[in-house]
């Protein structure tokens, strides 16, 4: 199963389309918030299912959830923006929550800084910002492949 992952698009339709083009064909998309309404642009452009969560910039009017849980190829995924776990101060709370939820993969955004880390059996992923990266020269997105219980990640610069 191949999954496209992006976060923090902040209404930048051009960046979304660039990410789709560089990621290539996927089975579905994950959007980790901040302008979760951009999921509609993503779905229209790709014709694929998009799971999106609300971030701190999405306001109270959004109908999107702040957390989404999926199981893909036997792996449990928690998609969240991360602001409620204070990820700008570190990922300790995020990792603790992920372990409480019993997930194999947690995907978050909010920091605009990419991360791919392992903590025991937990894979922690932040695709960075597809539109407004911090501390790097290029926006990023991520291609996640789950195959035969294995997790493969590829961070891609736009």
Q: What's the short version?
A:
The protein is α/β, with parallel strands linked by helices. It has helices spanning 13-23, 38-46, 92-101, and strands at 2-6, 28-31, 50-52, 67-72, 75-80, 105-107, 115-119, 122-126, 140-147, 150-157. The strands form two sheets. A five-stranded mixed β-sheet has the order 3-2-1-9-10, covered by helices on one side.
What distinguishing features does this structure have?
single chain, 158 residues, alpha/beta, Purple Acid Phosphatase, chain A, domain 2, 5-stranded mixed β-sheet, 3 helices, 19% helix
Low-confidence stretches: none
Count all strands and give the number: 10
Query: What is the tally of helical segments?
Result: 3
Quote the CATH topology: Purple Acid Phosphatase, chain A, domain 2
Amount of helix: 10-25%
Distance between the termini: 22 Å
Numbering strands along the chain, what is their spatial order in the largest sheet? 3-2-1-9-10
Derived from helix and strand composition plus strand pairing, the structural class reads alpha/beta
- The CATH architecture can be named as 4-Layer Sandwich
Mean pLDDT: 93
